[in-house]
Design goal:
- By secondary structure, the chain is an alpha/beta fold.
- 23% of the residues lie in helices and 19% in strands.
- It is built from seven helices and 13 strands.
- An eight-stranded mixed beta barrel has the order 5-6-8-9-10-11-12-13, surrounded by four helices. A two-stranded parallel ribbon has the order 1-2. A two-stranded antiparallel ribbon has the order 3-4.
């Protein structure tokens, strides 16, 4: 294991201990304060009193000139993992769902058949993981796709119960720096829209300056101008795993500046910006305390999220199986009803 990965995990463990110290036995913290290390109300509580070891998935498989939300543990390491917790009285309106108490196992009378590969289980509007434990606060299940999924039968996806889809609009080459449109972007936007599936979008960034980040945001805004985008517009920058990548030498401060530039341009256009990342990215690659105003899409492949700070969406697997899509696909749970939330 790389030294920096150990460092990230160490930071996380310290944060978790601080964020959970005031919680009752069995509670799971999902809403810590990064800057002050204070415990706030849990935004997403998992109905499980068992203590489990978490696994961190950080995939690095990517095509030669891109990375995307379909192949790594963050959406390309990126669009592939994230979520949130709930609470009854929080001051933030766009980044939180209402509070929910931790519950135990689902009653056998309504227990659904659950599987990670089939978006886990849903019964009476409640979601359960593959251990039949309720995922408190989840309000909608969805997926994210790019050209890696090929041609999609969106009606079959809708009939399966998928409520929203995040579609990749494009990416910037990590060596050439050229912005490329995802070859299935238009087809996916049109197909999901016609099938009645709510949509969000994401862009895999390799910007090295604030100006390039704004250029990427402008590209995304132009790509979606003819569609009704109710879910967030997501900034996805990830570690490429190669020293030749143009972003390899960027500092956490520079990456944070770039992230903010993208998000602010999206916000100015009337959309909700969001940041995608896994544990290592959030803890080691950006200055998270400067990004608290933006919703987070947390990627972690496990039966419950292990992150002490608030997040609004959780990518829990990249091996989902959904009718209408050939091969594996990223699956997500959302903890905010974006269809009723105005963009901020």
């Amino acid at each position: 294991m790389k030294e920096k990965t150990l460092k990230s995990i160490s930071k996380l463990l310290v944060a978790v201990m601080i964020a959970t110290i005031a919680l009752p036995s069995g509670a799971f913290a999902g809403h810590g304060n990064y800057k002050q290390d204070k415990v706030m109300a849990a935004e997403v509580s998992i109905a499980d009193s068992e203590q489990e070891t978490t696994k961190e998935n950080t995939e690095t498989t990517k095509p030669a000139e891109e990375t995307s939300t379909d192949e790594s543990s963050t959406k390309e390491t990126g669009t592939d993992e994230t979520s949130t917790t709930e609470e009854s009285s929080t001051t933030e309106t766009t980044t939180q769902a209402s509070t929910v108490e931790t519950t135990t196992q689902v009653p056998t009378t309504e227990a659904p058949t659950t599987s990670k590969k089939t978006a886990w289980g849903e019964s009476n509007g409640k979601f359960y993981n593959d251990k039949l434990k309720q995922i408190t606060g989840a309000v909608a299940k969805g997926l994210d796709v790019s050209h890696h999924q090929g041609k999609i039968d969106w009606k079959a996806v809708k009939d399966f119960g998928i409520e929203y889809a995040f579609i990749r609009t494009g990416y910037r080459g990590y060596e050439t720096g050229v912005i490329m449109k995802d070859e299935y972007c238009d087809q996916n936007l049109k197909g999901a829209s016609e099938a009645g599936i709510d949509m969000g979008v994401y862009f895999y960034s390799q910007a090295v300056t604030v100006e390039e980040a704004e250029e990427e945001a402008a590209f995304v805004l132009d790509s979606i101008k003819d569609y009704d985008i109710k879910y967030p517009v997501v900034f996805d920058m990830e570690e490429t795993g190669t020293d030749s990548a143009r972003t390899a030498q960027l500092s956490a401060e520079q990456k944070t500046d770039i992230t903010i530039a993208f998000c602010e341009k999206v916000k100015a256009a009337g959309y909700t910006p969001m940041i995608y990342g896994n544990i290592e990215w959030m803890m080691d690659h950006v200055e998270l305390e400067r990004l608290t105003q933006y919703p987070k899409w947390f990627a972690q492949y496990f039966n419950k999220p292990f992150f002490p700070y608030e997040f609004q969406m959780w990518q829990y697997t990249n091996e989902g199986s959904v009718p209408g899509i050939e091969g594996g696909v990223d699956l997500n749970l959302c903890f905010v009803n974006y269809t009723n939330s105005p963009a901020e």
